[in-house]
Automatic annotation (TrEMBL):
Transmembrane segments: none annotated. It comes from Microtus ochrogaster (Prairie vole). This is Biotinidase. Keywords: Coiled coil, Glycoprotein, Hydrolase, Signal. The keyword Hydrolase applies.
Amino acid sequence: MVCIMSGARTTPAVFLLGCCALALGLGSGSLEHREAKHYIAAVYEHRSVLSPNPLELTSRQQALELMKQNLDIYEQQVMAAAQKGVQIIVFPEDGIHGFNFTRTSIYPFLDFMPSPRLVRWNPCLEPFRFNDTEVLQRLSCMAIKGQMFLVANLGTKQPCLRSDPRCPDDGRYQFNTDVVFSHNGTLVARYRKHNLYFEAAFDTPAHVDLVTFDTPFAGQFGMFTCFDILFFEPAIQLLRDSKVKHIVYPTAWMNQLPLLAAIEIQKAFATAFGVSVLAANIHHPTLGMTGSGIHTPLKSFWYHDMDNPEGHLIIAQVATNPLGLVGIENVTSETDPSHSKFLKILAGDLSCEKDAQEVHCEEAAKWNMNAPPTFHSEMMYDNFTLVPVWGKEGYVQACSNGLCCHLLYERPTLSEELYALGVFDGLHTVHGTYYIQVCALVKCGGLGFDTCGQEISEAQGLFDFHLWGNFSTSYIFPLFLTSGMTLDTPDQLGWENDHYYLRKSGLSSGLVTAALYGRLYERD
């Protein structure tokens, strides 16, 4: 088992101990030593046994036989985790039944799902209370055997009446559902995925589920699934309306670099909102699906492996009250040369004006006397405006619509690589529709401008830098990825003079992506 710790100033360490004795939130100064209470969590990245033909109609018995193979693996992982004192375990989206079904072909794989808010039920101890609940029964019994909270994802069905105007023609709702069982096997929470990602087999609930559940070891947890992480409902609404400090997050995420790798967005959510994220992804490297982790704002344990075909269990200690990065560590002496330059630039007259064709930014600071050329390149299917980042030090800026992005940087050594600062302010319309504002420092795929935005995972370039922009939203995800799919943590994040900034120095490996990924939910 491979486990990597981020946030350190040394080369990322590889642990072969199952991560069981490693603590998140310890070892980075006095602030973190205040976190005295912890719980032990596990996430399992599962290589699911898939239906050989998900479009083919099958019987309930055949469906149960296939799902049993996945549930057997789940039980093995629960018992392994129990040996390490795990108190909560999270399994991935689609891990039990698989994916690529039609609405009809998935039906035999669906369990009936009563609402835990209306019915108190222990499926393991009351197996005959409801029909078609074999998967729920098995999961409930696992929680009892492991004496831990268990989070899993399955397909569920709910009959509906013809009088219901939303009732599908086949007379039932089908939902992509997360369930939570307590250590005694009781069903304590259910969440039905709201933001479906091209999932024709499932329906969207009429109302958004804002689901929390209480634990005796860490208080209140929230829950959502995969694509939900990019939207206001339920993810942001859940954090605004509750005292949630921990998120359980089943996902089936296909990695897309440079901005939306699985571990990248998981870590960014934890950092942006000051919560712990227990993220379990499916493991199918041939489909680009890998990347799970246990993340706090300051530390992460994660797994990303495109070569190993097997699943992987991560176990780590998590602080019950995670310390956030924003607003706690943003104390820097103004005598620091780079930060002093940053503050001087911000004190200048920044403005962006748009003529008929181009956006022009003016800056009073002296570090931008010889501006590099502006160019355009596609990144994540969006047309980014970019400027090359040349030389050992400098200041560059790029603008798009109302967003101006700025980069102040120094490089200890130069590498034979092209880096660029990119900006995008607009509606993303491929594989989902949502409005974003992005400032991104990225390594390009080659030395040509047209390679900027390509998917790469290896880099050599080291930077000490400030990255900032005049964002129109407070919902900003700090994305930070270094060579070999390694996570890193900013030194500082926060607002200064109506600009949001990220600061980092002392990279231990080459920079792949450093980005501020803003979401303007109201413009979706």
